[in-house]
Design brief:
Layout: E1 3-9, E2 18-19, E3 22-31, E4 42-49, H1 69-73, H2 81-84
Antiparallel strand pairs: 1-4, 2-3, 3-4
Length: 94
Amino acid sequence: MMLTKTVRSRFSHEPGEKVEGCTILERKVIIPPNPAERRLGVYDYLVEVPPAPPEKPRANKKAPLPKASAAERGTFTRATPDEMGSVIRRLPPR
């Protein structure tokens, strides 16, 4: 089964070339180039996309923390880095 997609680009390529791992099947000029104004053209390419490798299900590293426990106690505190699950940026002092 061949997967295709349309890619818009300002660079001129010919059918049969490989760009970013995709093979160009068709080329359509949307806006022709104008060398007098040093303007590039705009092209639509129909490219053949290689099939993506099947994704394997990922196992969670940790069990999710119960988020309602703080609300049950009646206290509201800031989330810890483990609860946020992202990077904390520290701002420099003013």
